[in-house]
Specification:
Chains A, B: This is Heat-inducible transcription repressor HrcA. 2 copies of one chain form a homodimer. The first copy, chain A, has 12 helices and 10 strands. By secondary structure, chain A is α+β, with helices and mostly antiparallel strands. The structure holds a DNA duplex.
Chain lengths: 340, 340
DNA sequence: CTCTGGCACTCGACTGTAGCGAGTGCCAGT
DNA sequence: ACTGGCACTCGCTACAGTCGAGTGCCAGAG
């Protein structure tokens, strides 16, 4: 395990060159392009050690070296300093996001921005309902037996659902229902509403029990079970950039994975205390994504985290740059959310 | 232009074989696989004519023939009878769509269903707001200077938008506003609301003029300008099926085109009286899609058309099957919309 | 006039061989 | 511990040769 500083420098150089050129890198080219201060032969010896330890490998004998997933991991963990964005980039982000009129708009702009800046596939989760608080519940009578339930969360997210009532309900009763529901639920975090929703049924006037029961069913369904998580995606065209060298020739599995909301949620939705997460190749739990890397992070107003965002690209990607971009975009979106 | 029946039969056979095998088809193979009742030599002569007329071509000398866009066009127009779906398929469609709880759900299910049945990229436009009627307008007070405007269309589509008022408004006034707006606009087709919205400002009480002005601005924006058209997409992974033989090796342009909502709308949104439209290769106005074909149609409750749907695939696709599927799915969705 | 069988021809796909060169591993020397 | 040198490996490219599917054309039969 003895990896002295120079061996690490060699690994860093290999990663940087390979990411830039997409071609296996040999000892001679390395000493030419980086000031390592030693001869190719020495580098070769270091390479042999690095290969033995599993950080790099040769596609075939008599070819240069290529980093392995493990090599990238070491690079990310110990060898790369996050490169700060240029002021121009920061301003671009700010300006682009500032134009948003709407939560939907914010999410759309964010995902496009991420895709464009990183030149990769971007994924943004809508602010999770479970992590939001109820700002207001609205009941709109459509007919005597139909209500439109509109849930407005403090993150600005709005969800609606049609409710089919078991029996006709008078307009005054709708007002009644609305008041009761709002009194009990406004300000509560959505993930904690289920018990309260149960209690609602008992508390309301007897002749409204039926209506309230279906209403609360739909409420629970909307808030907790279904739909709950929405996702925006952009930049899939970037997958086809690397001339099929990345992703070992077939985009099929990647595209398939990206079509599954569940998969995407798994990718970026598991938000932990740690600010930012990088999953490299094999580290991905999803089989279809074994040839890809994912950089993801949570975002939200202030320290609260309401959702995740991230990008997906070939394992051979510019980690420092991507990490910096994802982090910066997430921070700006968080500020934007906090303002409103 | 003398294309007798046999030449047409040859063309049909070529198209069918090529679609099935993805390989240039030669004269010998043709007579073996189809009962044409003539010798290869005769077929060759017919092929020479077909080639001269531009319906087929040779990738290189001494290779079989491949249909041109023009050949596919002729095939679609005159040589293919729409093959009816099997009862099993019909039932599958019905069952799958029947489970939908929601307009959103209907659209999502539809697009996935289309992608799955045709094994191609599916696109479904949400019921266009411009073509819907207003069922209800709701104003939800968020704070004294903020309203949430919710527009509910008769197609079940719901659109919401935050309104920042120029000055605080009392709760009673909100009720007033809501009543006025609903009285004037409910039942009106959205594309015809603009003049009425203008009139609203004049009619309302003086102390509400300011509020009504911003409100109507947002209303117009929401209904007409922005956002208005939404699109669902599925099955992009199917693009990567044909092993890069379709789409001349690069998915890039296709994926790029699919990312642009505007492009997608152009693809399937131009709904005309004609029931179903097939655009083959070069016939596509969008440059990036010159290597693809699009089968699209309008849908809606009864004879009204509220949106478009369709699929996109390689020019080498099973036109009869795809056409039948798209038509059937559109019809079922129409019925579903009519029921509610 | 139409169809057919025959024949020469074309040209892409595949195979085998050879030379080149990037890159390596090893070793002896400083 | 580093370096220069050297033999070796092996993928890549070019080139020649063969094979065969498929064609176009033509003369002859119906």
């Amino acid at each position: 395990m003895g990896l002295d500083d120079r061996k690490l420098a060699v690994l860093r150089a290999i990663v940087e060159d390979y990411v830039a050129t997409q071609e296996p890198v040999g000892s001679k080219a390395l000493v030419e392009r980086h000031q390592l201060g030693v001869s190719p032969a020495t580098v070769r010896n270091d390479m042999a050690v690095l290969e033995e330890e599993g950080y790099i490998r040769q596609p075939h004998t008599s070819a240069g070296r290529v980093p392995t997933d493990r090599g990238y991991r070491l690079f990310v963990d110990r060898l790369s300093r996050v490169k700060p964005l240029s002021p121009a980039e920061r301003r671009a982000i700010e300006r682009f996001l500032a134009g948003a009129v709407d939560l939907d708009d914010v999410v759309h702009r964010t995902v496009r921005l991420l895709a464009q800046l990183t030149r990769q596939v971007a994924v943004v989760q809508y602010p999770s309902l479970a992590r939001s608080r109820v700002r207001h519940l609205e009941l709109v009578p459509i007919s005597t037996t139909r209500l439109m339930l509109v849930v407005i969360a403090d993150t600005g997210r709005v969800e609606q659902r049609l409710v089919e009532l078991p029996a006709p309900v008078h307009a005054d009763d709708v007002i009644d229902l609305r008041r009761t529901v709002n009194e009990k639920l406004v300000g509560i975090q959505l993930s904690e509403t289920p018990p309260l929703v149960q209690a609602l049924i008992d508390e309301c006037a007897t002749h409204l029990r039926g209506a309230m029961t279906t209403l609360s069913t739909v409420l629970l369904e909307t808030l907790v079970e279904r739909h709950e998580e929405r996702i925006a995606l952009a930049g899939t065209a970037n997958l086809a950039r690397g001339g099929l060298l990345d992703f070992q020739g077939s985009l099929r599995p990647i595209l398939e994975a990206l079509e599954e909301e569940v998969v995407l949620l798994k990718l970026i939705g598991e938000v932990e205390p740690s600010t930012l997460r990088v999953r490299i190749g094999d580290e991905n739990e999803i089989d279809n994504l074994r040839a890809a890397s994912v950089v993801s992070t949570g975002y939200g107003p202030g320290a609260v985290i309401v959702g995740g965002m991230g990008v997906l690209g070939p394992t051979r990607m510019d980690y420092p740059g991507t990490i910096a971009t994802v982090r910066a975009v997430a921070r700006y979106v968080g500020e934007l959310l906090a303002q409103n």
